[in-house]
C-alpha cells in the first residue's frame, strides 16, 4: 500500500481521513437540529434583550415619580428601545455629566431641541427640564407600558432568577434527544 503525500492546500481544506475537521462551519454541521435550534433561539434572545445600559437596544424602567402622570404613574414598568428620537417621543435618558444628578435615569417627553441637546419635560410638570440630554445620553424611546406589577419585574431581574434561567437553558441544550444514545453501554461486553 502506498501513501500519497498531502500538500499544504490539502491540509488547509481538511482533506485526508486522519485529519479532523475544524472551524465553525464544521462544528455547526455536527450539531443535531434540536441543538442548533436551541442555540439559535438563545442567541436571538440575547441580542434582543441585551440592555441599553450595556450597549444594547432594550431597556426596562420602573417609573419612580409623578412627573409623567397621567401617561405613566408611580410604579409603572415601561419598555424602551434604542432608536432615533423625534419630537413628542417619551425617552429614557441619563442626566448628562457635569449636571446636578448626573447619571440618574429620567423618563420625560421630548418637546424640542436636536441630537446635540434635546429639550424635555414631564407631562405633569409646568416647566421644561434644566438638563439637555444629547443622543449619547438617550437610553431609548418608550415602546409601551407593561401590565405587570413592578415587584414582579424586580423578581425577574434578580440575580438568582437570571442564574436559574441560564442554568435551565444550558440543561436543555445538553439534554440528549434520545435517552438510549446518551453514551456507550456500561458493563462487560463480549465481542
Describe this structure in words.
It is built from five helices and six strands, in the order αααββββββαα. With 191 residues, the protein is α+β, with helices and mostly antiparallel strands. The protein has a domain at 52-148: Umud Fragment, subunit A (Ribbon), CATH 2.10.109.10. A six-stranded antiparallel sheet has the order 1-2-6-3-4-5, with no helix packed on it. A hairpin with a 2-residue loop joins strand 4 (105-114) and strand 5 (117-121). It is elongated. The two termini are 29 Å apart.
CATH topology of one domain: Umud Fragment, subunit A
Strand ordering within the main sheet: 1-2-6-3-4-5
Number of strands: 6
Helix and strand succession? HHHEEEEEEHH
The fourth-level CATH homologous superfamily of one domain is: Umud Fragment, subunit A
Structural category:
alpha+beta
Query: Sheet with the most strands?
Result: 6 strands, antiparallel
Low-confidence stretches: none
In what range is the share of β-strand residues?
15-25%
Radius of gyration: 27 Å
- CATH top level label of one domain: Mainly Beta
| Terminal residue distance | 29 Å
Helix-residue proportion:
25-40%
Amino acid at each position: 500500500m502506498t501513501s500519497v503525500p498531502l500538500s499544504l492546500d490539502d491540509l488547509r481544506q481538511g482533506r485526508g481521513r486522519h485529519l479532523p475537521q475544524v472551524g465553525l462551519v464544521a462544528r455547526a454541521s455536527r450539531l443535531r437540529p434540536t441543538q442548533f435550534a436551541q442555540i439559535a433561539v438563545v442567541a436571538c434572545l440575547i441580542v434582543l434583550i441585551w440592555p441599553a445600559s450595556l450597549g444594547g437596544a432594550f431597556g426596562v424602567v420602573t417609573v419612580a415619580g409623578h412627573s409623567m402622570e397621567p401617561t405613566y404613574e408611580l410604579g409603572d414598568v415601561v419598555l424602551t428601545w434604542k432608536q432615533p428620537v423625534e419630537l413628542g417621543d417619551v425617552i429614557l435618558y441619563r442626566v448628562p455629566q457635569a449636571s446636578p444628578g448626573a447619571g440618574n435615569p429620567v423618563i420625560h417627553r421630548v418637546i424640542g431641541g436636536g441630537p446635540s441637546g434635546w429639550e424635555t419635560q414631564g407631562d405633569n410638570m409646568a416647566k421644561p427640564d434644566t438638563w439637555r440630554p444629547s443622543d449619547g445620553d438617550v437610553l431609548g424611546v418608550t415602546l409601551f407600558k407593561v401590565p405587570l406589577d413592578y415587584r414582579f419585574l424586580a423578581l425577574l431581574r434578580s440575580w438568582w432568577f437570571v442564574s436559574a434561567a441560564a442554568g435551565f437553558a444550558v440543561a436543555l441544550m445538553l439534554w440528549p434527544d434520545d435517552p438510549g444514545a446518551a453514551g456507550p453501554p456500561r458493563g462487560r461486553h463480549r465481542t
